[in-house]
What we know:
The complex is a heterodimer of chains A (161) and B (133). Chain A is globular and about 45 Å long. Chain A has a single domain (7-153), classed as Thiol Ester Dehydrase, Chain A, CATH 3.10.129. In chain A, 27% of the residues lie in helices and 36% in strands. The longest helix of chain A is centred in the middle third of the chain and has 20 residues, at 71-90. In chain A, the strands form 3 sheets. A 6-stranded antiparallel sheet of chain A has the order 2-3-8-9-10-7, with helices on one face. Chain A is α+β, with helices and mostly antiparallel strands and 161 residues long. In chain A, strand 2 and strand 3 (49-54) form a beta hairpin. Chain B is α+β, with helices and mostly antiparallel strands and 133 residues long. Chain B is built from 2 helices and 6 strands. Chain B has helices at residues 8-12, 44-65; strands at residues 16-21, 24-29, 70-81, 90-99, 103-111, 120-130. Chain B has a 6-stranded antiparallel sheet, with helices on one face. Chain B is elongated, with a radius of gyration of 14 Å. The two termini of chain B are 15 Å apart. Classes of the chains: A alpha+beta (161), B alpha+beta (133). Chain A binds chain B through residues 7, 10-11, 14, 32-35, 37-38, 58-64, 69-73, 75-80, 95, 97-105, 108, 159-161, and chain B through 1, 7-13, 33-41, 43-46, 48-50, 52-53, 73-81, 84.
Amino acid sequence: MDQPDSREAVIAAFTGDVPFDPSIWTERMNAGGHSGFIGMRYRDHGSNWIELGFDWREDLVGDPETGVLASGPIISLLDNATSLSVWTRTGRFRPQVTLDLRIDYSRAATPRRPLIARAECYQMRRSMAFVRGIAHDGDINDPVAHAAGIFILVEGQDWAK
Amino acid sequence: MKSTELPPYAQAMGMTFADPDDGSPVITMDFGPRAIGRPGFFHGGVIGGLLEMAGFAALAAELERQGLDMRIKPINISTEYLRAGLPERMFARGEVVRAGRRVANVRIEAWQSRRDRPVASCWMNFQLSPKRD
């Protein structure tokens, strides 16, 4: 993968209408910024779904007494996974913004276990993408959280700065 | 959590308490490398994390006011992203709509330079249960 060496190149890579390779794009998104801090990694993808994960860490904890993860990193993981599922489905990268995202926490994540999110884009309209996802800590049949959201597809010029 | 303490995740993200507004805690954080989503803007998950901290803090403060010592667990959160999160300081404050014996409902807003132009708003539902000693 090419390493963009200027700010302009980074923005061009994020805003152009370019082919989307889920693993390359995920690694690029996770190289820095918030996703990099959380330590998100690409795991797998299919025609309209993608799976990402991150490892449990002391500084991501929400309840120091139990070691249970804060819900912020779970939102971030599901936000990224659902977002990437849209481009995974279309095979193209196109700028989009989150309209809304709902998350139901079905149980606390087990301390010290990696967290995994599998998200799918289940329907597309011309200007909207409908997504849902599940976060779990090893068994997808015993989820930690469920997500549902909508992304609005936008024009590129002001999407990144 | 207590209404005056933030957990490790919030501290790692640089969240702190600002002056309370109308009795409810206000949580704030600066923009920085750990907060970046798409280039130049706050990550939606960071905004969600800040909203949640403000929701927890508002509920903890309300329960303290009522003299109740309860365990608080989030049931769900639904966030509407209203504006882009610009690379500047962000604030969030929650309002407890109802705190019953088992469930509490909280509305939260996040804003930046203008309080009347929120960046995001959300509702959260919490489960309340007696603390085990």
